[in-house]
Structure formats: structure tokens, C-alpha cells
Amino acid sequence: MELWDVKRDEDRAQWTFTPLVSVGPLQFGMSPYEVAVTLGRDDPRFYKDHFGGDYAPREDRFTDVGVVAYHTGSGRLAGVAVDALNGPQVTLEGIPLVGRVPSTMEHWICDHTQAHGLDLLYIHEGNPGSADLGLIMRVQRAGDILLSRPLFLIREWAMGVWDHVPQSEWRTV
Fold this sequence. Notes:
Blueprint: E1 14-18, E2 22-23, E3 26-27, H1 32-38, E4 58-62, E5 67-71, E6 77-82, E7 89-92, E8 95-96, H2 102-116, E9 121-122, E10 128-130, E11 135-142, E12 145-153, H3 155-159, H4 161-164, H5 167-170
Parallel strand pairs: 1-7
Antiparallel strand pairs: 1-2, 2-3, 4-5, 5-6, 6-12, 7-8, 9-10, 10-11, 11-12
């Protein structure tokens, strides 16, 4: 895969999003070790769950899967970012959310939230989302084009993404 290659949908793992519950095989609330094992990595560093109190959120990158897992200071999965270029294709009610044209996804999330009576919000970057869904539709560069990079979150984090999601996520473009 070259620097800006984008996987075709049929070459991606196929995951389903259940709002505020799970993203594919990842359940919100999992420990870093549970996430690592679920994603096929049995790395000893994930055995150490030394979380507690108000420590900074933890970030674990699974570049081979195209996923970044974000954990709370107490060590529970609170966010999953899916890489627009090579991450799994994640669907909600049959709609693919990864690697799509941002304007199309903005229209979709506006229509979806209105049709279901859910909140619609725009975060500091101007990306649309919904705390009711636990979904922020971010974007990521693929050469000279932008593609959707969904960020799936627990409700608390979706309501205050700037306060909870590590700064490294905002540097991913």
C-alpha cells in the first residue's frame, strides 16, 4: 500500500456500530488488554492495567487494523477512531461510515439525527456529530482529498470531545 492508497470496501474488515455500546468486536468499557486480545495482539505491555483515579486517557494504536483505541484514566474503552485509509468499514443501519466523502456524511448525519429525534452537534473543528449516537464524523487526508474518519465515543466523551479525547487525535489529518 502506498502512502495515500485507500482500501476498497471489499478489502476491509466489516464491522457494525451499535451506538454507545460497541464498534465491531470492541465493546465500550473494555480494558486495554481485552481490546488488544480482541484485535489479535497478545502483547505483555497490555497486561498492566495500572489505571486508577484521574490519570490521563490512554491511547493504543493498532495500525495493522487501522484503529486507535482511547481509554479513560481508569482504563476503560471510551473511544475508537477508524482510519479512513485502511481501517475496517463500519456501518450503522447499513450505511458505511468510513472512507466516504465528508459532505455526503454530513448530510447523512443531519438527516439521520433529525429523523430519529437525536441531537446534532458540531465540534471545534466544524465536524458534525451526535452525543446521542456517540459519533463524530471527522475527516482525514488521502492525498488531495478528504475522507470520513469516524470517531466513536461514549456519551460523556462525545459531549465534551475537546476535554476527553487525547490531543493526538486532533493532529490526525
